[in-house]
Amino acid sequence: MQIQATGLGKRFQRDWIFRGLTRTFRPGSATAVLGPNGAGKSTLLNTFSGQLLPTEGTLTYALAGRALAVEDVPRHLAYAAPYLELLEELTLLELLRFHTQFKPLRAGISTEKLVDIMYLGSARHRLIREFSSGMKQRLKLGLALYADAPLLLLDEPTTNLDATGVAWYQEHVQATRAGRTLLLSSNVPAEYAFCDEQLVVTDFQAERAG
């Protein structure tokens, strides 16, 4: 998916979170969205996802060379973030079956194979609410990384992961990034070391009010 941001800005009340962002994000690119905590990285990702409307400027999307309406973006988007909730009253297998009705997995990946990829085989019949925070984060990442979606947004992807989990993330984000448009919000170098482009949110915060 190609995304074109032109003069993009987002304001809450009188405060501009970012402003004047013009950039093209092309298929196959991996962009690290950088900045200190509270700089607006998550707001920027949520704007790209279509969940938030920009205050000014435009966002246009194209898929396979054809224009894509913003309301159709969620069908082609995979998103993982610590603040996104899981259906905790379901077991792992129930959640995967439910989720994949709306967001199919990549070709060759079944729900059982994804369970094995995430090293959650022993928990397939456990309720999600019984998972540790690290298991939940690995699940969120697995659902996003292995979704059949050309746009991938990751917000602080190694939150709640131990060293083994971080190594798992690094392996699988590399294995699934080809051909996708990937934007990754972070201030942890180990999360975005593979990215070939960077966008520093504070570069677009010259005007904070008005």
UniProtKB/TrEMBL annotation:
Query: What is the name attached to this protein's record?
Result: ATP-binding cassette domain-containing protein
Q: What keywords does the record list, in alphabetical order? A: ATP-binding, Nucleotide-binding, Transport
Domain called ABC transporter: residue spans: 3-210
Does Nuclease appear among the keywords? no
Species: Hymenobacter cyanobacteriorum
Q: Which GO terms describe its molecular function?
A: ATP binding; ATP hydrolysis activity
Q: Known SUPFAM superfamilies for this protein? A: P-loop containing nucleoside triphosphate hydrolases
Q: Which InterPro entries does the annotation name? A: AAA+_ATPase, ABC_transporter-like_ATP-bd, ABC_transporter-like_CS, ABC_Transporter_VariousFunc, P-loop_NTPase
Q: Which parts of the chain are coiled coil? A: none
